[in-house]
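Run: sequence + zinc ion -> complex structure.
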Amino acid sequence: MPTIKRLHAIEILDSRGRPTVQATCELAEGISATASVPSGASRGAAEALELRDCDASRYRGLGCRKAVENIKTAIADTVCGVALDSQTQLDNMMLARDGTVNKSNLGANAILAVSIAFARAHAALLKRPLYQHFAAMATPGGTARQLPRMTINLFSGGKHAGGQVAIQDVLIIPAAATTIEEGLATTYAVYQAAAELGMKKYGARALTADEGGLAPPFPNAQTMLDDAVTAIENAGFKPGKDVVIAVDVASSHFYEDGKYHLDGAVLDGKGMVDRLASWVRQYPIVSVEDGLAEEDWAHWPLLREAIGSRVLVLGDDLLCTNVGRILKAIELKAANALLLKVNQIGSLSEALQAGQRAQGAGWSVTISARSGETEDDWLADLAVGWSGTQIKVGSIAHSERLAKYNRLLQIEAETKLPVAKWPG
Ligand code: PGA
Ligand code: ZN
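>> structure
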């Protein structure tokens, strides 16, 4: 039974140069491990609270010194010296000490950093790779069974690219690739073809957005999809066979007064469902994330009915990795897949519960990074250990993204596990 001897924390910077939290957990058994947490920009309203200093004179209020202090004082006081029999025990002690529904007291960033640093230290103590530790956390005695299929950002818009086009991501999935290694090579070819296409069509070299996606000035969402198909073809692949498409519509962010403001049109919920259904008919799309706004519960079941037999109806802002919201969505048949972001809920054990509820309902789970990431690579281990069918990390660009892909390559080389079959 591991015992935490000391907790340490510092403020570090994420991929946008904004502060985030890094925690180090030192066990009495002489092992210590460090982990850092990401931060979103296109956030769901129901997410746990990321504690910021709100001191406008420093990092425009985004400092994390309070969260760091909370780890070194309140959390350390609560958990140090206790013999811990599980991750859940540690997480529950922190939740009890926080005492709020959304972790606004200690901060989800503080709690999660400790939660993951402990998992990593515990894995090292047990002398097992982190992905195997996560697998055993999910199922006692369990081991990793598969590698996730990669959904890789190609084009960006919305909040990740200054809003030049409404929808947030067009992603590609190297569907014909049977390994991570081959999937990344395919993706590189398509990404380069897309960059060349962008240069030809839009002039200047396309800037990359927060997650490394290309962000030329698309005139509308449909052009993003057309360009993705062209880039796949230009790279020598067959769209719909070798490479398929996913979209993160992130529609909460262009939903106002009950209407979707998309490419000059003002659509009601039904109109938005029709628009998405027509995209699914026209393009080789296999997954639609946040096709509707997070509070538009009335139309989500319609969306699932319209496209759910053919594609993943994936809830991100809708679900916020929150068991209560997932149960509601299962009951209403509002979605058929969960986007799991650990920091939306703020502790490993709660995120695991959320993933297992979704899997228990027959849903598919995409394990996802945030747009503000660090070079830490625990997400790859988590996706493997928790049997995520998909992983969503961003583009094949920027070191904070590549750290996760490189870790997947390492895990693949080590385990030779198969990549998950595309559901359906
Ligand atoms: P975020 O967005 O990390 O900026 O919140 C990612 C997503 O919407 O999937
Ligand atoms: Zn999303």
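>> summary
Residues 248, 250, 289-290, 316 surround zinc ion (ligand 2) (CB under 6 Å). The mean pLDDT is 97.
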